């Protein structure tokens, strides 16, 4: 792989002739296979997660990732940092009211500044949970599903809504796909992002319906037609957003069909009441919200949805071009379990194709940044300042919620292994290496035990580093660290 060669050359060019002093004895070793599993199934190994894994044993550790119990407490400093965010202190309706007042003011600058702060806080909370929450697989899957059901934050006031959107998807990250689909498709952020609040009987807007079929469920080759897009758009008519505290005016005869869920509003006066036919199945009209739920359920159970979703899961966790036989087995499991994500992932983890892929999947920027921070962080002083992480993700071209198009960030290596990307990673490695040298405490020893076996060339270069910070930078720039 060209990336590995480039990283090795950079390592050789940056090496120093002096050696580090003798390092303290290593902590309890983790089996290489367990380390590879931990690295692939979470945002990267940390000292705490490696110790927990070896204590539990492989079987129980995997099951704990697939079926996490109640949320364990975050480190007090991390929990305190989250609770200090205005996003966490202020209920969403109050935030909406505050932003609406700012939006209507003559001076729009405070409005834009507040949106900027909310976007930064949303990213901060997400990164703090990814770095420090003990349920590593769930945290990784939260990112995966937010990318699959992508909402770009740059449109309108979506920076206000994106945090609630992520928190709404979070409980379903290892649950059933149908619940995820409903949570995404009916959330105000998605409805605004894909223009469904403009979708009404007699004035169809097909944007949301098209992306539901092409990106979120069946896939571009899933067998749907333009007619299916139009019929699905009819199903979704009347589903919109209400940022105010006053319900929409609805004719008395339609009042029983009116529904308000948070900022999402179903307005029966804007809904097409006729029967619809999607993918050859007729949906009885006149039922409003129940029609939408029925149709989303049918899409979630469709065989094309199973194949499309399982192929993306395999791309994310196995290979850029997943083996067709593996996708077939995952699709069968998905359908047999009514879209149970944890059970589908259990089949994936047990597959020989998964085991064979360990240590060969190239890290996209978010995997690189989070795994690097987990490696260099001091377990005794949890990192709570997420500015280095957000700056790094911006520099590497993958800021959270930053993709402008609804397809989400690409999952394949070719999107992220160019020479410019690698040069930027080397600079990020230098920056992150300085995080291990906080004033007032000694530098943290580099965590080579938490990186897959290093090649002779890399070991030789690391041995010539003169400071822990240099060694960290070299380790984070090594070809081995670019893979998971």
Give the low-pLDDT segments.
Answer: 1-26
Instruction: Average the pLDDT over all residues and give the rounded result.
Output: 91
Number of strand segments: 5
What structural class do helix, strand and pairing data support? mainly alpha
The total of helices stands at 24
Taken as a percent bin, the fraction of beta residues is under 5%
Query: How many discrete domains?
Result: 4
Rg from C-alpha positions?
Answer: 24 Å
Strand order of the largest sheet: 1-3-2
Helix content: 40-55%
What form results from the Cα inertia axes?
Answer: globular
Main β-sheet, in a few words?
3 strands, antiparallel
How would you characterize this protein structure?
The protein has helices spanning 2-14, 32-41, 47-56, 58-66, 76-83, 86-89, 92-104, 109-132, 136-148, 158-169, 177-185, 188-193, 207-216, 226-235, 289-300, 303-317, 324-336, 341-350, 352-357, 365-376, 387-395, 419-433, 456-462, 468-476, and strands spanning 239-241, 259-261, 264-266, 276-278, 281-283. With 484 residues, the chain is mainly α. It folds into 4 domains: 2-24 and 362-482, no CATH class; 76-175, no CATH class; 192-286, no CATH class; 303-357.
């Amino acid at each position: 792989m060209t990336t590995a060669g480039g990283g090795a050359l950079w390592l050789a060019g940056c090496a120093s002739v002096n050696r580090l002093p003798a390092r303290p004895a290593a902590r309890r070793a983790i089996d290489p296979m367990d380390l590879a599993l931990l690295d692939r199934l979470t945002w990267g190994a940390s000292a705490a997660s490696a110790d927990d894994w070896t204590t539990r044993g492989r079987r129980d550790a995997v099951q704990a990732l697939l079926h996490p119990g109640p949320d364990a407490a975050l480190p007090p400093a991390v929990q305190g940092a989250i609770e200090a965010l205005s996003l966490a202190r202020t209920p969403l309706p109050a935030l909406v009211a505050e932003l609406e007042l700012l939006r209507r003011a003559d001076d729009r600058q405070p409005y834009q500044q507040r949106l900027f702060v909310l976007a930064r806080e949303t990213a901060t909370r997400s990164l703090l949970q990814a770095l420090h929450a003990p349920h590593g697989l769930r945290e990784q899957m939260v990112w995966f599903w937010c990318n699959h059901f992508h909402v770009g934050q740059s449109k309108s006031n979506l920076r206000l809504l994106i945090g609630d959107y992520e928190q709404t998807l979070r409980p379903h990250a290892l649950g059933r796909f149908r619940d995820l689909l409903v949570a995404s498709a009916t959330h105000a952020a998605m409805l605004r992002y894909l223009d469904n609040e403009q979708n009404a009987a007699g004035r169809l807007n097909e944007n949301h319906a098209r992306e539901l079929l092409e990106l979120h469920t069946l896939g571009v080759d899933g067998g749907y037609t333009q007619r299916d897009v139009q019929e699905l758009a009819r199903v979704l008519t009347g589903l919109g957003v209400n940022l105010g505290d006053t319900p929409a005016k609805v004719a008395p005869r339609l009042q029983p069909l009116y529904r308000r869920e948070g900022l999402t509003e179903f307005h029966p006066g804007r809904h097409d009441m006729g029967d619809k036919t999607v993918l050859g199945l007729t949906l009885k009209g006149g039922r409003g919200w129940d029609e939408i739920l029925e149709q989303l359920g049918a899409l979630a159970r469709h065989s094309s949805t199973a194949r499309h979703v399982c192929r993306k899961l395999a791309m994310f966790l196995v290979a850029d071009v997943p083996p067709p036989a593996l996708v077939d087995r995952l699709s069968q499991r998905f359908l047999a379990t009514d879209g149970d994500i944890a059970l589908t992932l259990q089949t994936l983890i047990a597959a020989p194709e998964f085991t064979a892929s360990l240590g060969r999947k190239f890290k996209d920027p978010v995997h690189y940044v989070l795994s690097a921070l987990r490696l260099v962080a001091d377990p005794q002083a949890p990192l709570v300042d997420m500015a280095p992480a957000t700056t790094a993700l911006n520099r590497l071209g993958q800021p959270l919620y930053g993709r402008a198009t609804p397809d989400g960030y690409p999952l394949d290596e070719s999107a992220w292994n160019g020479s410019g990307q690698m040069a930027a990673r080397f600079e990020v490695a230098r920056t992150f290496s300085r995080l291990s040298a906080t004033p007032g405490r000694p530098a943290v020893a580099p965590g080579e035990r938490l990186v897959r076996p290093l090649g002779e060339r890399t070991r030789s270069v690391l041995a010539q580093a003169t400071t822990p910070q240099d060694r960290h930078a070299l380790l984070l720039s090594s070809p081995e660290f670019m893979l998971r």
